[in-house]
């Protein structure tokens, strides 16, 4: 398996599976657009996600869905492959599919991108890149939670 969860976290790597689970348990989703080669993604996991409060919020209050934008190993099933106008190519592997989804739906192709969303995948608060301060990041996670509970 080419997709490895960060230590202490149990993400879904499939958008539909994660979303289905989130609906079942009544929690918002945290979309983590990440990459194998994304240095700031690893820095966030190693420096910020290890914070007790941040880890608690991600693990207990959200359904974490990690979407790798650079995975070339996992091929998409034929019915999911489409031509991406943004990428100017077919979305034939997981990375291109996720990157097209990120760029099309959220207007960004940079990683990390964190999207705190409801079950319709609409952002609850503005999407966010890396925040290397645990208190600030926890406040961001809490703001999404508050918006979801409204």
Structural class of the helices, strands and pairings?
A: alpha+beta
CATH topology category name = Glutaredoxin
Strand order of the largest sheet: 2-1-5
> Superfamily at the CATH H level?
Glutaredoxin
The CATH architecture name reads: 3-Layer(aba) Sandwich
Secondary structure: elements and pairs:
Blueprint: H1 15-25, E1 29-34, H2 39-48, H3 52-61, E2 63-68, E3 83-84, E4 89-90, H4 94-106, E5 113-117, H5 134-149
Parallel strand pairs: 1-2
Antiparallel strand pairs: 1-5, 3-4
Provide a descriptive summary of the structure in words.
By secondary structure, the protein is an alpha+beta fold. It has one domain: Glutaredoxin (3-Layer(aba) Sandwich). 40% of the residues lie in helices and 14% in strands. The strands form two sheets. A three-stranded mixed sheet has the order 2-1-5, sandwiched between helices. Strands 3-4 form a two-stranded antiparallel ribbon. Strand 3 (83-84) and strand 4 (89-90) form a beta hairpin. Helix 3 (52-61) runs parallel beside helix 5 (134-149). The radius of gyration is 15 Å and the shape is globular. The mean pLDDT is 95.
């Amino acid at each position: 398996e080419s997709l490895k969860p960060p230590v202490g976290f149990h993400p879904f790597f499939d958008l539909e599976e994660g979303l289905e689970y989130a609906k079942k348990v009544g929690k918002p989703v945290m979309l983590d657009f990440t990459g194998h080669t994304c240095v700031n993604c690893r820095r966030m996991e190693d420096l910020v996600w290890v914070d007790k409060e941040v880890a608690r919020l991600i693990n207990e209050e959200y359904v974490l869905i990690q979407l790798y934008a650079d995975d070339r190993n996992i091929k998409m099933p034929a019915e999911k492959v489409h031509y991406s106008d943004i990428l100017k190519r077919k979305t034939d592997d997981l990375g291109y599919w996720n990157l097209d989804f990120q760029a099309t739906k959220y207007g960004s192709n940079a990683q990390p991108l964190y999207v705190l969303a409801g079950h319709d995948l609409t952002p609850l608060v503005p999407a966010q890149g890396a925040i290397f301060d645990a208190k600030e990041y926890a406040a961001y996670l809490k703001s999404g939670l508050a918006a979801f509970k409204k």
